[in-house]
């Protein structure tokens, strides 16, 4: 028994340092491999070889790399994932019709307003009253769950004057739940036999971050992707009033508010596609091409996002903030399902 235990320790001591010492090479190799197979789709007859590169697979590869090897090029990873996600979302706008998107967004608007306010209140009760999580961390987790994950936390944090440690814990909590959601939501949707529209609405409200919402929608289907993206980006506009309200409640004046300008470019892309590109056959092909390319860059973005998670982030999260995030997530997920099926 002792020899078996010592062998496991020895194997661990050999393998992990090897992976960590060569993590940059492994990182570049994984990214190159992923991109190569992903863009094989543009070569006639090669679609079968690229079909395995899906958003969940890309996220899983990034997560596996980060947990086994640690982070490689963290600054590049963070910056690239941020901007590539924004460009990808704008590109998705070239595959959407404005009238249809407005209809989807209008239908989900009522519950969006109720869920944003309700999530903030329930989050305060769970975090502050029951779990005794510190004020700023609890508020950041509630804000990220209520609106759009990391983007909301990044916008509200400076207004709240949150510490780096509080921001890290909140972001880590939301990020872990985002990664889980991308895998389990499509499975739950199929198990419940949800329609494309139902799943898109559910994912947009119950999943925190835009990247995971779009990834889950894409994994479920074309219509689910359109509905989820539209409702989520409409919901993301709440970042602006939330930041102002936070400034008023916590009396932090003069703080810069981070406005998600890419959402407005997404709307402009939809308008251009609806009234310009969709009027001709060639224009429709151009719009479809941009939309398809955006989906591929989104898949790569999920690899970057997955590779941003590390064991240090997991340790920093702690149990109480994670419990708050999970409980709040369960509440919003179940209440959204109830709304979809009964109203």
TrEMBL record:
This is Sulfate exporter family transporter. The keyword Magnesium does not apply. The keyword Nucleotide-binding does not apply. The chain crosses the membrane at residues 25-43, 49-72, 84-102, 108-127, 139-157, 169-192, 199-221, 233-250, 257-277, 326-342. Pfam families: Cons_hypoth698. Keywords: Cell membrane, Membrane, Transmembrane, Transmembrane helix. Belongs to the UPF0324 family. The lineage of its organism: Bacteria, Pseudomonadati, Bacteroidota, Bacteroidia, Bacteroidales. It is found in: Cell membrane. It is a multi-pass membrane protein. Its main location: membrane. One of its GO terms (cellular component) is plasma membrane. InterPro entries: UPF0324_pro (IPR018383).
């Amino acid at each position: 028994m002792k020899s078996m235990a010592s062998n496991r320790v020895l194997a661990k001591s050999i393998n992990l340092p090897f992976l960590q010492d060569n993590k940059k090479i492994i990182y570049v190799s994984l990214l190159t491999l992923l991109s190569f197979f992903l863009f094989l789709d543009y070569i006639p007859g090669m679609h079968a070889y690229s079909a395995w590169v899906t958003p969940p697979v890309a996220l899983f590869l990034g997560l596996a790399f980060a947990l086994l090897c640690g982070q490689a090029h963290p600054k590049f990873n963070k910056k690239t994932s941020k901007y590539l996600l924004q460009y990808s979302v704008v590109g998705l706008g070239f595959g959407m019709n404005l009238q249809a998107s407005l209809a989807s967004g209008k239908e989900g608007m009522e519950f969006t307003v109720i869920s944003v306010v309700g999530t903030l209140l329930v989050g305060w009760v769970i975090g502050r009253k029951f779990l005794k999580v510190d004020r700023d961390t609890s508020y950041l987790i509630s804000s990220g769950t209520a609106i759009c994950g990391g983007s909301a936390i990044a916008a509200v944090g400076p207004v709240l004057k949150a510490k780096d440690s509080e921001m890290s814990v909140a972001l880590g909590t939301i990020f872990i739940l985002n990664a889980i959601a991308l895998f389990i939501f499509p499975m739950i949707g199929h198990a419940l036999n949800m329609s494309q529209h139902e799943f898109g609405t559910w994912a947009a409200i119950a999943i925190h971050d835009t990247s995971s919402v779009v990834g889950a929608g894409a994994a479920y289907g074309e219509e689910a992707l359109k509905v989820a993206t539209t409702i989520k980006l409409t919901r993301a506009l709440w970042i602006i009033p939330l930041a102002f309200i936070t400034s008023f409640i916590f009396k932090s004046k003069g703080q810069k508010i981070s406005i998600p300008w890419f959402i407005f470019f997404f709307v402009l892309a939809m308008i251009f596609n609806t009234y310009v590109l969709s009027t001709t056959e060639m224009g429709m092909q151009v719009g479809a091409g941009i939309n398809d390319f955006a989906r591929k860059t989104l898949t790569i973005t999920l690899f970057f996002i997955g590779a941003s998670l590390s064991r240090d982030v997991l340790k920093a999260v702690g149990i109480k903030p994670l419990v708050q995030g999970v409980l709040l997530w369960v509440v919003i997920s179940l209440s959204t399902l109830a709304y979809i099926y009964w109203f």
